[in-house]
Amino acid sequence: MKKAIALATLISASSIGGVYAQDLAPTTPAPSPSDVTVVYITEATDSESSNDKIPPTLTTPNPQAAEAAQAQIQTDSNLMAALEEKNVQLQHVAGIETAANGGKIVYVR
């Protein structure tokens, strides 16, 4: 009988802990236009430093990065809407990163 009570206590405690853990799970809000930063990749000359903050993998055309970024945007309707509001066309997106604050940085050619 003591084993049955101990087992019942264990089961109820684990299910309560599971529900509690689910309630505390962080949720990521949908990106709004203010959470999306658009960075334009330009042809830099020797005197220009506008591309200093662009990842080295994106300073030259990288079809794999562009395809991955475009696929990510197509699966996230909120991100797509934010980019449309900023007049960014999907075919010009070269790459995408998640910023430290959870926002998106979209690199455009």
Structure description:
This protein is an alpha+beta fold and 109 residues long. It has a domain of 76 residues. Helix content is 40%, strand content 15%. Strands 1-3-2 form a three-stranded mixed beta sheet. A hairpin with a 5-residue loop joins strand 2 and strand 3. The radius of gyration is 23 Å and the shape is elongated.
> Fraction of residues in helices?
40-55%
**Proportion of β residues?**
5-15%
Most strands sheet: 3 strands, mixed
For the largest beta sheet, what order do the strands appear in spatially?
A: 1-3-2
- Tell me, rounded to a whole number, the average pLDDT: 75
Cα distance spanning the termini: 71 Å
Low-confidence stretches: 15-27
Give the count of helical stretches.
Answer: 3
The counted number of beta strands is 3
Cα Rg: 23 Å
Structural category is alpha+beta
**Outline, from the CA principal axes?**
elongated
Question: In sequence order, what are the helices and strands, one letter per element?
Answer: HEHHEE
Signal peptide: 1-21
Keywords: Signal
Give descriptors for this structure:
109 residues, elongated, 15% strand, alpha+beta, three-stranded mixed beta sheet
TL;DR?
With 109 residues, the chain is of the alpha+beta class. The protein contains three helices and three strands. Helix content is 40%, strand content 15%.
Spell out the blueprint of helices and strands.
Blueprint: H1 2-23, E1 36-40, H2 63-75, H3 77-85, E2 93-98, E3 104-108
